[in-house]
Amino acid sequence: MAVTAEDMASIPALDAGAAGLRADLALIAQMVAPGSRVLDIGCGDGALLAHLARAKSVDARGMELSQAGVNACVRNGLSVIQGDADNDLEAYPTGAFDYVILSQTLQATRQPRQVLDSLARIGRHAIVSLPNFGYWRVRLSLLLTGRMPRSPLLNYSWWDTPNIHLCTLRDFTVLADDLGVAIEEARMLDPAGRPYGMSARHPAANWLAAQGVFLLKRAE
Asked: For residue 98, what are the domain limits?
């Protein structure tokens, strides 16, 4: 099914203050309410946290596995601890944050189901972005070459990739449903990071979107 001009017109423009962020991070920043409590898991160098603290006055906290990332965050005055999603989320109490963010990381965790369940427990909302292994170029590459595809979002050889639980967007929505986690908002992105005007459950989304950004909440 084609994406119409009306669909594209319904997508809000990216915040100009977030122009320096990666495309999915800029969309995540739009989803976060000003003044909220935010935990960014796998926060890297803290670019998103710094933007949220500056532009939206959030109480910004982070968790990062790499020491280099933690050091970069601390140098920039961010409150970040070293830890990983698989082992350290149980220490956080239920409802400790308004938003818990996990960007381009779920597919690299060892227990993605447990991690997603923890995100929905710790935060009133969870925001997850992930690459789509069902994207048509990925499917075509596997069909034509018979080898694990590589793309800008999945740019590793099969033998050294950190992405150990790749999934499609449909896989993700099924897991969210199974856990009783509601999808409040979803943005589908093309390879250049531009949003498509379709929902995650649109029949064409699993083919056309290179990645997805999901705003989630534990179902009542």
From this structure: 5-218
